[in-house]
Structure formats: C-alpha cells, structure tokens
Amino acid sequence: MDAESRECVSERPVRRRRVQWREWGPLTLLTAAGLAGAGLWLAGLRGAAQLVWAAVTVVALLPATWATLRQLWRRQFGVDVIAVLALVGTLLVREYLAGAVIAVMVATGRALEEYAERRASRDLRALLERAPRQARRRTPDGGIRVVPLDRVAVGDRLVVGPGDVVPVDGTVEEPATLDESVVTGESQLVSRAAGEQVASGVVNAGAGFGLRAGRSAAESTYAGIVRLAEEATARKAPMVRLADRYAAAFVPFTLLVAGVAWVLSGQFLRAVAVLVVATPCPLLLATPIAIVSGLSRVARRGVLVRDGGSLELLGRARTLLMDKTGTLTAGRPRAAETVVAPGGDRDEVLRLAASVEQLSPHVLAAALVRQARAQGLRLAEPAEVTEEPGRGVTGRVDGRLVRVGQLAGEPPDWAHRVRERAELAGRSTVWVSDDQAPLGAILLEDPVRPDARRTVRRLRQAGLNRLVMVTGDRPRTAGQVARIVGVDDVIAQCSPQAKVARVREESGRAVTVMVGDGVNDAPALAEAHVGVAMGATGATASADVADAVLTVDRLDRLADAVEIARYARRIAVQSATVGMGLAVVAMVAAAAGKLPPVAGAFLQEGIDVLVIVNALRALRGGLRHRDVPPEIQELLDRYADEHGGVRDVLTRLRDTADLVATRPDAPECVPALGEVHRRLVDEVLPHEAAEERNLYPALAGPLGSDEVTSTMSRAHVEIGRLVDRIGGHLAQRADGRLRRDEVPDLLAALYGLDAVLRLHLAQEEEDYFSLNPADDTDRR
C-alpha cells in the first residue's frame, strides 16, 4: 500500500469520529447538563439546578431560533416554530425544567435528522471510497504497468489482481470469481467464464484474471454511480420532511388553542403548557427514523435513492412510465435463431460469422460471438478483416471468404422467406455469405426480461395503477412486448422530446416515476417526479440525472423499492398522526389547567418513545416478495441451464417440421424426423420429468400452493403426448418414406409441439426462474 493510500485509510476513522461528534455531541452535552441539574436539585441546590436548566434551554433556543428565521426568510414554514415558542415560553414563566426537557427533545430530533441525512448517503460514500484510481495494463513486451484510470482506452488488456476492484467495463479473458455485492446487493459470489461481460466496481474474489476493456473509465458503469454518489454527498439542502406538510394546519391550530387558553383563563402559564405538549417531537423523530430505515433497506436491495424526499415521492407514486430497451428488455441483442440455405449446416454458419466478428466492437458482433461460445463452437482466427460501417464485416476464415452483415444482390427465394419471417417476429437479420451466395441468416432479438411480467404485477399490487411503455421502437415490436408484460398503454416511435412531453403530461395528473437506461432517457428522467436509471447497464448519463439508480440489472428491485417506500412512508405518517393525536389530547388538558408545563414535557417524552418504537417497524416488513431458499435457487439454476439444450432441440424440431412441410418425399426427411424424435425422448422428456419430480414440489412453498404449478404439469402431459404421436408415425415408416395422407397429422404434431414447448419454456422462465436473484437472461 502506498503512502497516499495509508494516509487516506488513517484519515477515515478520524473523519468518522468528527461526523459522529458533530451529530451526537450537542445532544450528549445537553442531556448531561440536564441530568447535572437534576443532581443539583436532589442535592438541595435548587437555585443552581434552575440556573443549569435555564442555560440548557437558552443553548437549545439559539440555534433553533436561527434555523426558524432562516426558514422564514426562505418563505418556508415548519413545525420548528412551535418548539421555539415553547422554549421562549418556559423561560418567561420560569419553568426551566420543562424548557430543559424540550431542549433535549429538540436536540434529539435534530441529531436523528442529521443522522438520517448521513445514513441516506452512507452507501453512496462507500462507493466513493471504493472507486479505483488506477489499473494494471499489459505492455507490448509482456510486462504489466500501473497507469491512471483515465488513461485506460477501449481494447486495452488489463490485469485484475486478487481483491482488486474491476476498474472498467470489459470482457474477462479467463474464468473469474467475483463479489458483486457492493454494486448489485447480491451476497453470493458469481463465476464468470472467459468471454463474459463484467461491470466495473465489482471485486475480484478469486485468482487474478485478464480483462479486455470494453469502455473507457468515464463511460463505465461504476463511473456513473460514483457521479451520483458525489452529487448526493455534496448536497447541502436538508431532507424533505413530512412534518413540514403538517405544519400548515398544526401550527395555526396550536397557536389558536394556546391563545384561547390564555384569554379565557387569564393565565399565560396555560398557554405555555399548551405549547410544551404541542412541541412536534413525534414529527421530528418519527419521520427521520422511518425514512432513513426505508433508504437503508432499498440500498440493501440494490436501489440507491438520492434523499428522503425522493423516497417519499416514490411512496406516493401512482403512474409509472418505462422505456422498453434495457428496462423491460435485456437491452442487448441475442442470437435467437440461425436459418441456413437448403442443405446448409447451422453450426458452421454461426461459427463462420462469429469467427469474423471477433475483432468487431459492434454490439451485434458481441451477440454472435457470445452465442457461438455458448454452443461450444471452436472459433478460428480471421484474416484480412475489414469493416464497412453500415454494411458489415468481411474476412477470411480457414482460407474461406466470409461476409457478415447486409445481403448484397438479389436474394434467393429462401432468403425472401427468412426476411418475412424476421419481420413478422420483430427480429433483426444478419446475413452470412461467402464469395458465391448467402449461406444463412442469424436472427437477433432483444429478449423481454424474464422477471418483467412478474415485476409489472408486483408494481400494480404496490399501488401503481397506471403503467405506460414509451419506446422509440416500431409499433409492431413495441406492441408485442407490451402484450407480454401487461402494461396499460404503449407509445411507439417516441423521440426523446416526445418522452419528455408525455412524462410532463402524466406528471400533471399524478406523482409519476420514469424508468430508463439510455442517454436519450435522461431528459425524461429529469422531468419525472422520480427518475429511476438502470445504472447496472452502464447508462451513466441517465444515472447522473436520476433520483434513484438500480445498481443491479434486475427490474424487480424497482418493485421492492416501491413497496419499501410505501411502507416506510405509511409508518412515518402513522407515527406522526398518532403522536399529533395524543398531543392534541394533551393540549386540551393543558388548556383546561390540568397539565402543568413540567408534567406536559415528561408526557411528551412518553409520546416520543411510543412513536419511536412504532417508527422502528419500518426496519422490517412491507415486502410482498419472499426470497427463495438457497437449495431452491440451486434447483432453479440447474433447470434454467438445461433450457439451453431444450431450445437447441426446438430449433432442430422446427427445421424438421419445415422439411416435412416443403419436401415430404425427400430421402433425408424420415432420418431427420428420427433424429429429432430421439433427442426429444433422450433430452427433453427427462428434463420435464425431473422438473415435475424435483422442482415443482419445491416451489409449492415460495409460490404458496401446489395448485400454482398445476397448469405447467398439464403442459408436461401434452408435451409427452405429442412426442408419442410423432413416434407413432415413425414406427409405421419402416420403408423410410412418408405417405402423403399422414403428412397433415404429422405436421400438426410437429408444429403443435414446437408451440407448446416454446410457451412452456417462456412461462417457466417468467413465473419460476425469475424468482432466482441470478440474472438468467444469458441462459435464455
């Protein structure tokens, strides 16, 4: 550790002690002085005790008066004015003990509020302290040089040592074990294979590994979160308090009761007693405790909220607007299907395309390489690679010229059908050709997040009664996603300016939340009452203007934040309302002369204890979602991983169905049918049987009932029935040829099985696998 690092480490405890003393020092001194006065009183030195209590009252009065005057100068009117009047009143009627008790209560409320402000940004400051300042970069001669972080460029090869913080977003070059808890909130270690993407800010929990930089330091995920932390910790404005909203009614009411008591009785002492019991400590204490509890809880769930005011607004929100890409969808393309020319080899087409694209920084290239590696294809090193922006990449693979990108020339008939198929499905098409003709096409999609539909349901349960999707995508694609996730309205082909206008329109009717992840979402996030950025995807511009940032790439954490915010706000309002109600009863008693100032002060302390205990309930409860036990998470991981193999069988099934539909007389038709039937029997049916036997019974607890999985069990029966039906047709074809009259029924079984299996996999991933905190988008 260098000298600068040691100096920083040594300064942190000192700084922390100074902060704690500044927060709790005044309260400690006032409490000690009040107790000293009590000791003098018990010792018979009543004059000295009164003097000490009077001094305590004056010490508390001066800063309270200054704060109140500043508020009035800014045309702000808060409940602190009652505390000031009560302190002045006790001095005027010489009820110094009552004044000292009020002073301690006011100091307690102020200390708790300062603590709440500091605690609200504690997790953000932790991120600041962990921010890397330098990186280890490989040199051309094979060495390693430590360089400042701002000198790291895209494409640089870095080394991340054990315990190091990953400095920039990039691709791991060797298997790595990472601790992502600080950024994502997940406590379990995560393993990343070579070629997988990793976000900056996570910690290397295993051996050192190589990292190829995918973004510069300024554009990386962690940089955006750090900028958010810097802004949050630099804020000087106090946290918005629920107490000030009640001041408009409570303060005039208190002054009215005190005035009436004075006029009717002719005793100023009664007016002071009313002010003493009306001192708004339930508001000053309950609100900060409940709100800071909510801020701390949402931070642990992977949601960083700037301040208490934003959390309160989140708890009152009724309308949610969401961008599609990166919010409801994964935000990065996925190779959904590979279609080849008649007689072509699907794996070979994907291998050629991925080999050429290895050197391209384009996001589509990364999708092809990722899919090829996921299928275990061995990629070759390309030669003579050239890239033409907007057209594609050309290179030689094993001496063979390969073009990946747009299709040149007039496409053959099969290519026309592929293009129409992609258009209907809302997918992008990447063509793979050699120097003679197109070899095939890879269809890319931006998949809907597995947890999106479940999250939308939870957001409705939390009280958001209007959900709108805004996107710049085409109406057909936007409509498909909207139907899948179940939103109320969809606005397609929406420009950034149109998004801002729509947010402004919705904000005029209700408290509105806007969620987005891209640079074009930043203006809309700033316009909403609460802007939420998907910060884990590296959207630094949107994170800079947002009121909250999801540091984990899971939309369901937004539902957690909404539920926690509503619960914390409900507890705060409940505590404040109960406290004020009891204070009103005490005010009536004081106005009637039944409660002197000293007794009223101690009664108010009892009310404070009651509301504090109630406010502490915000530390727990309020979440509808229950985390599944680790053993069930392991089951979900296992069967989610097996879905990749099932989808590969599905692709072969669809190809076989197309072959039977177009060329039933072809000699390869029955062998292809036999091969796909063998894989269905050997791979798919055992997978479904294992889920039925192991997974579904285990999910009965987290889902609440055995009946929840009954429809999925019925799908297993239908899958088995269709596989048997295909096998029955094969058993009758000993001669290796299909009869024309059996083709329609066979096609019904093949295409029916394809549809049932795809729907079944999608339902499992949305309803069951999304229960697992691990992100299973890549598995799909």
From TrEMBL:
Record InterPro entries = ATPase_P-typ_cyto_dom_N (IPR023299), ATPase_P-typ_P_site (IPR018303), ATPase_P-typ_TM_dom_sf (IPR023298), ATPase_P-typ_transduc_dom_A_sf (IPR008250), ATPase_P-type_domA (IPR059000), Cation_Transport_ATPase_IB (IPR051014), HAD-like_sf (IPR036412), HAD_sf (IPR023214)
- Coiled-coil regions, chain positions: none
Membrane topology classification: Multi-pass membrane protein
* Entry keywords, A to Z: ATP-binding, Cell membrane, Membrane, Metal-binding, Nucleotide-binding, Translocase, Transmembrane, Transmembrane helix
Query: Can you cite an annotated GO cellular component?
Result: plasma membrane
Kindly give the PROSITE patterns that the UniProt entry links to this protein: ATPASE_E1_E2 (PS00154)
Q: Which residues form the Hemerythrin-like domain?
A: 637-770
In terms of Pfam families, this protein maps to: E1-E2_ATPase, Hemerythrin, Hydrolase
Organism superkingdom:
Bacteria
Name this protein carries in UniProt: ATPase, P-type (Transporting), HAD superfamily, subfamily IC/heavy metal translocating P-type ATPase
Q: Which organism is it from?
A: Micromonospora viridifaciens
